[in-house]
Structures
1.
Amino acid sequence: MPLTLKAVPCLRDNYAYLLHDPESGRTAVVDVPDVAPIHEALDANGWQLSDILITHHHDDHIGGVMRLREDTGATIWGARADAHRLPPLDHALVEGDLVTLGTQTGAVIDVPGHTIGHIAFHFPDSQMAFTADSLMVLGCGRLFEGTPEQMWSSLCKLMALPDETLICSGHDYTKGNAAFALSVDPENPDLRARVVQMEADRTAQRPMAVVPLSLEKATNPFLRAHLAYFKQAQGRPTASDSESFAWLRHAKDTF
Ligand code: ZN
Ligand code: FE
């Protein structure tokens, strides 16, 4: 039976995610920007937290981990590469390690770029991937620590997941991301249709941080940087894939 997923809005535009395995009753949270909204969501569903999964070291993803750990005794999973700057880990993870949540397992994917030591979690049986500030809705994280080459190769790993995978990212930056995407890929009919849909979702206050990978591949400019028409449109037909990505990331930083 697949995991039950609840997106929990936190702080200004962050998302934490609750994952509940109905068979074992175990419940994990991916990232802890804040404590109160997570307790509320757990209580509303009658779930008890068993596990805390950390994607990367930024405060807006780990700020509530220690409090939540004290409140619940949950087990903490995070990247070994970042163990020195994360709360104390019960499980220090490297790429390919498996996170177990009751009957479900998630694979750890190393996705450096936004930070070094940023990891994603892929639960293949539930068709979900938690990408935080690597692959984001219609965008990708800023490069604070990694190189464009590292981020491009991280995005390529995520693009190789099955198309049906639900991408669950760390923030809702859709408004700015949509404007930028349209500026670099204005003729893309899927993108134009999606932006119209997103306006409707925003008006109806539907959460927008969870999207099928297929839709991201069709509309997210950072997953299209390698396509010939895209390079052509930017006047860079001979750029390598990672050069095209680097140009795009720089253009977004100054947009
Ligand atoms: Zn971050
Ligand atoms: Fe963040």
Note: The chain has a mean pLDDT of 97.
2.
Amino acid sequence: MSETVELFEVGPRDGLQNEKALISAQDKIALVNLLSTAGFTRIEVASFVSPKWVPQMATSAEVLAGIARAPSVSYAALTPNMRGFDGAMSARADEVAIFGSASEGFSKANINASIADSLERFAPVAAAAKAHGIPVRGYISCTINCPYDGPTSPEQSARIAKALHDMGCYELSLGDTTGHAYPDEITAMLRAVKAAAPKAKLAGHYHDTSGRALANIEASLAEGVRVFDTSIGGLGGCPYAPGALGNVATESVAARLETLGYTTNLNPAVLERAAKMALGLRGKGQGDV
Ligand code: HMG
Ligand code: MG
């Protein structure tokens, strides 16, 4: 039997958050409902952040209320602070994610906090999640380089990974936020992080700005990573990482993994329909683009 690699679908969050024109909750719900039939076990659908910082995610509670939940899918939400956590709990998110950075510049630009201050903010969120029995995932952005500070050392990424692991994160999602990493840089980062946290708890989150995300996934597979965050249709980017393009496309990664002999348990026909739907949402917003 071939080995399974899990794709964590982040399109409804990371994919759509960067779209300038506001997409209706109904359209987002239709996309999530279709994705829920593709075979994913985790889909990130919401983000309880300030609507002033990311207006596109202001409909997150409406989206979580409107989707037809598949019992086998965990519906995830980003929660930068306790206010976000409370919002996610009221909206019945199945799991939450705190999101930090390995670089000071991106931390400040993205969540208006130094790394040290962000870890202080995350600690009560992780504690509350534990008290509610809600899994909490930890994102680490800019593990290779930062749009503001330049290269990040593997040791620095490992330090933040350890801090989030010690806080109780069940999985650490390692971001190439700018999407410019090379496979050897990914390998060096993963080797350092593996010394700080168990490899079974690591996920790759690679944006595809330079077209090397698939090569970076192959480098990660060689290091034992078996979970990757992907975005249907390759949509997305982060509004606070200038120039960064979307996550690597789910359908491309799924096809590549099957060619490499791995199983994803995803239905390619559904992925194709969902990619068309996701790309159709681009520019189909209700505001000015
Ligand atoms: P701040 O300005 O430092 O915080 O923002 P504040 O506490 O002073 O609050 C400012 C305003 O936001 C206040 O409202 C708060 O009430 C409100 P006002 O008084 O001005 O009307 N507020 C909130 N509203 C809704 N939900 C909340 C919340 N918290 C405060 N949870 C804050 C700090 C973290 C809130 C802000 O910086 C923020 O929302 N940042 C989010 C940025 C973001 O979402 N970026 C994209 C996601 S991260 C990403 O894409 C990377 C990732 O994909 C991995 C990778 O690729 O590397 C995960
Ligand atoms: Mg991202």
Note: Residues 14, 17, 47-50, 52-54, 78, 80-81, 83-84, 87, 99, 110-112, 139, 141, 175, 177, 205, 207, 238, 240 surround 3-hydroxy-3-methylglutaryl-coenzyme A (ligand 1) (CB under 6 Å).
